[in-house]
Design a protein that fits this description.
This protein is α+β, with helices and mostly antiparallel strands and about 450 residues long. Helix content is about 45%, strand content about 15%. The strands form 3 sheets. A 6-stranded antiparallel sheet has the order 2-1-11-10-9-8, with helices on both faces. Strand 9 (about 290-300) and strand 10 (about 305-310) form a beta hairpin. Helix 3 packs parallel to helix 7 (about 175-185), helix 13 packs parallel to helix 18 (about 435-459) and helix 16 (about 405-410) crosses helix 18.
Length: about 450
């Protein structure tokens, strides 16, 4: 009998064998450490999830108060906030209190604009950024001065739409600040409280909030990191969330349809589905990277940068945050490296682009300053050579040196044009664009000094 039982046990163990060990995760920590060193960032945190597990969370560097950055360091995540705002709206949809294809004015009677078409904007069009709202046709400066979301709606009243609702997509923060006000009115609580109760709390994101609970960040000035307080301005549902890498791990798990959830499977699928005629979903964009379709959203403030991504094919989720901002965004490239690792590839650590770009601008500023000094010193010789020549030609030669002055004078308008009509102020241009601003100012001063010196010599 014993031999029979022993034989059966041996057979069972032979067939069943030990439980297969889970495949080792890629070396995310090693890659992130290398990326932190190569990018030269002041501080960075990151999280990687797979299925219902956080497989890596870490932090590197320091904050502006000298404290070590960890996975629990609060960071501003800028436009990543939009995905949370969309989720809050969709919880109301799941409760039957909001319908995505109803006009926004159904829930927000105070949402009025000078353009009658605004009354046709639906909740879905807000979240898919197909509403027709645009930085080009709304007084963004007035919205930034609003004290709360109710005042924000009031600042929109003189505005118009750039195109018919639902006809095409255009990225505009106004969509998600209006959506945040909708959450306030339907829920009955302030947006921050509603987001905490509807999204953060159920997911265990205890370190997340809407507000300013983060240390000053950094800007890069010719390669040197300078601590600065974030520019004031209304951020609301479009960019007001402060969170941590650890909390974003819980969020990414939920967005992968695992772990604790705040949305029904149907609403989660809707959140990830782009609107008609656009690649923008509800707080997420769909991007194809090396043949893989990812859900991605980046966020940029003037002293903080962040990016999050979900790879449905592998079940991985990624988020990378930094307490800095510069002309070149390293976060997106760091995230792409994590995605490649998750797919079994071996990416090279990103970095160096910011340093090269700012070194080039520094050298340009030095050359411009040198040419300005040389132009002033040689202005008498220049004037003697043009004695008796055509005044028109001399005027053209004088005016050519003033081109940098013209570029500086129209600098905010030029940047606004290149950024699809977004409002750009001089104060903003002293932040992450500081190296370009300083270089252009040096070139303009050099050109102006040379032109004035030559004109004086001519007279």
């Amino acid at each position: 009998m014993r031999k029979t039982l022993l034989a059966v046990l041996v057979l069972f163990l032979t067939i069943a064998g030990p439980a297969p060990a889970r495949a080792a995760e890629p070396n995310f920590d090693g890659y992130l450490r290398e990326a932190f060193e190569s990018t030269g960032l002041p501080g960075m945190s990151a999280v990687v999830t797979r299925g219902d597990q956080v497989v890596h969370a870490s932090g590197f560097g320091r904050d502006s108060d000298g404290r070590a950055v960890t996975a629990d360091t609060p960071m501003r995540v800028a436009s990543l906030s939009k995905s949370f705002t969309a989720a809050a709206v969709l919880t109301l949809v799941d409760e039957g209190r909001v319908a995505l294809d109803q006009p926004v004015v159904t829930y927000l009677p105070d949402f009025r604009m000078a353009d009658a078409r605004a009354a046709r904007i639906t909740v879905r069009q807000l979240l898919n950024q197909t509403s027709g709202l645009s930085d080009r046709t709304v007084d963004i400066g007035a919205t930034q001065r609003a004290a709360d979301l109710a005042g924000y709606l009031g600042a929109l009243r003189p505005g118009r739409l750039a195109h018919d609702p639902g006809s095409r997509g255009e990225y505009c923060n106004v969509n998600f600040d209006v959506a945040a006000r909708l959450v306030e009115v339907v829920d009955g609580r302030g947006f921050g409280d509603a987001l905490r109760e509807r999204v953060f709390g159920p997911l265990g994101m205890s370190a997340s909030s809407v507000g300013d609970e983060a240390s000053p960040g950094f800007i890069s000035v010719y390669g040197a990191w300078v601590a600065r307080a974030e520019l004031p301005g209304f951020r609301g549902g479009a960019g007001g969330v402060v969170t941590t890498a650890a909390d974003l791990g819980r969020w990414l798990i939920s967005q992968n349809g695992r772990g604790p959830r705040v949305l029904t499977p149907g609403s989660l699928a809707v959140q990830h589905q782009p609107g008609s005629g656009t690649d923008y979903a509800m707080g997420w964009g769909r991007e194809v990277v090396d043949g893989r379709t990812l859900l991605v959203h980046s966020g940029n403030l003037f002293t903080y940068t962040a990016v999050q991504a979900v790879d449905p094919a592998t079940g991985y989720g990624y988020a990378v945050l930094t307490n800095s901002a510069s002309l070149h965004d390293d976060m997106y490239n760091v995230m792409l490296g994590l995605v490649a690792l998750g797919a079994g590839e071996r990416p090279e650590a990103p970095g160096g682009e910011r340093q090269k770009l700012e070194l080039g601008l520094a050298l340009t500023a030095l050359v411009a300053a040198g040419l300005g000094v040389l132009g002033v010193l040689r202005s008498e010789r220049w004037a003697r050579r043009r004695a008796g020549r055509s005044r028109w030609w001399t005027g053209i030669r004088l005016g050519g040196g003033l081109l940098p002055v013209v570029l500086l004078a129209t600098y905010p308008q030029g940047v606004s044009f290149l950024s699809n009509g977004r409002t750009v102020t001089w104060a903003q241009l002293t932040y992450f664009a500081a190296p370009l601003t300083i270089t252009l100012a040096v070139a303009a001063l050099a050109g102006l000094a040379t032109a004035v010196a030559r004109l004086v010599r001519l007279r």
